[in-house]
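User: tokens in, sequence out, please.
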């Protein structure tokens, strides 16, 4: 069924909560904002950082730039490794690769960080394509990331109906589902990530799975 599979990273293949939320907390503190609850910062997992700082804390563009710089100051050396891979994920990726499927990462996280995380967990070898955002903030919307992944992965002559049947985008937030819909590919939501209750359903995910084993079973069809 699926020959091309795009994976989100944060909340889909790994659990990055401690590293991301602690780095956001560090950035906010540098701007004079104290946020003691890491749980309250979970919504930062998934969307572009600039959007989250703007939406949740009302920062202006100058403050956003400063916050992102402070975030990366901590994340670059410490937060990036405060991360855990979901049990069963390496085995799932190995099975999909052995079945001849083409795999890609499609993440709003800067590509340089994505590559370091994949290397850290020894799973980079499973991916044929690694697409993230740019350090200057461009290509950070999930629709843009998916567009670039499809451009690199797919034959240009693939018909829309064929694309829907052959390509899946797997993610844990509505942004992943919306990115898939924007480009006419199948959307697969994973409920073990960081979507609030009902978000994946409301976004219209084609499939929703609750475990890594169930995800593997679906993608191996």
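Assistant: Sequence out:
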């Amino acid at each position: 069924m699926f020959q091309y599979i795009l994976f989100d990273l944060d909340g889909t293949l790994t659990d990055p909560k401690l590293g991301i939320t602690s780095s956001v907390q560090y950035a906010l503190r540098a701007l004079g904002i104290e946020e003691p609850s890491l749980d309250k910062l979970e919504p930062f997992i998934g969307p572009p950082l600039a959007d989250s700082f703007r939406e949740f804390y009302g920062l202006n563009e100058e403050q956003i730039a400063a916050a992102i710089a402070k975030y990366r100051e901590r994340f670059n050396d410490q937060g990036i490794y405060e991360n855990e891979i979901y049990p069963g994920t390496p085995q799932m990726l190995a099975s999909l690769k052995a079945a001849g499927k083409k795999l890609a990462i499609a993440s709003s996280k800067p590509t340089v960080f994505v590559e370091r995380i994949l290397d850290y967990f020894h799973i980079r070898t499973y991916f044929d394509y690694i697409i993230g955002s740019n350090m200057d903030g461009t290509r950070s919307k999930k629709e843009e990331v998916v567009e670039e992944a499809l451009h690199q992965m797919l034959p240009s002559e693939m018909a829309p109906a064929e694309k829907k049947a052959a390509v899946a985008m797997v993610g844990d937030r509505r942004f992943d589902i919306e990115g898939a819909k924007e480009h006419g590919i199948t959307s697969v939501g994973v409920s073990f990530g960081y979507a609030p209750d009902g978000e994946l359903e409301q976004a219209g995910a084609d499939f929703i799975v609750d475990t890594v084993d169930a995800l593997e079973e679906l993608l191996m069809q």
